[in-house]
Design goal:
Order of helices and strands: HHHHH
Distance between the termini: 43 Å
Largest sheet: none
Number of strands: 0
Radius of gyration: 17 Å
Number of domains: 1
Low-confidence stretches: none
Number of helices: 5
Structural class: mainly alpha
Shape: globular
Length: about 110
């Protein structure tokens, strides 16, 4: 929400109220994460879980270490070492799940 609000403010566009800003942010987040994690499915099925893990770990590290250089509040993902670890673990688990699902879909579709 902060990134969208700052971007809109920077280009002198109207920043929506908090509720609408939340809706726009969630829609964008769902779309971008779906596209990002779908990359786990590119390539051979046997590598899907490893690709998912790499994608998740990269996203988790980015979520922890990129906010400050991007001029955003690093607090939500970087308050404590435990918060940083949990943030990275959540993204990693998302990547692993994407990989497992991708592998299962590929194996199911190839057996039809």
């Amino acid at each position: 929400m902060e990134a969208i609000a700052k971007t809109l403010d920077h280009i002198e566009a109207r920043v929506p109220d908090e509720h609408n800003l939340f809706l726009v942010t969630m829609g964008g987040d769902i779309l971008s994460n779906s596209l990002y994690y779908s990359l786990a499915g590119f390539g051979k099925a046997r590598g899907a879980i490893a690709r998912g893990a790499i994608l998740g770990l990269a996203a988790g590290i980015g979520a922890v270490y990129l906010p400050k250089p991007l001029g955003l509040d690093p607090g939500p993902a970087g308050r404590t070492n435990q918060t940083k670890l949990l943030t990275a673990a959540l993204y990693l688990s998302g990547g692993l799940i994407a990989g497992v699902v991708s592998k299962a879909i590929e194996e199911k579709s190839s057996s039809l």
